[in-house]
């Protein structure tokens, strides 16, 4: 007789685990720096001459 297939936890459990953790705020400064760099890059790229 074959063994029953093992059931993995559904997506409901994963979302609940994420809700328990605090939101990642340590990368906020890095995100601001990236936005600044990209802003200057695209303003130079699409500058009208």
Explain what you see.
With 49 residues, this protein is mostly helical. 57% of the residues lie in helices and 0% in strands. The chain contains two helices and no strands. The protein has helices spanning 11-20, 28-45. The chain is elongated.
Rounded mean pLDDT score: 77
Radius of gyration: 23 Å
- Uncertain parts: none
Number of helices: 2
Amount of helix: 55-70%
Question: What fraction strand?
Answer: under 5%
How would you sum up the global shape? elongated
Task: Give short descriptive properties of this protein.
single chain; 49 residues; mainly alpha; 57% helix; 0% strand; elongated
Strand and helix map with partners:
Elements: H1 11-20, H2 28-45
Could you write a compact summary of the structure shown?
The protein has 49 residues and is mainly alpha-helical. It has helices at residues 11-20, 28-45.
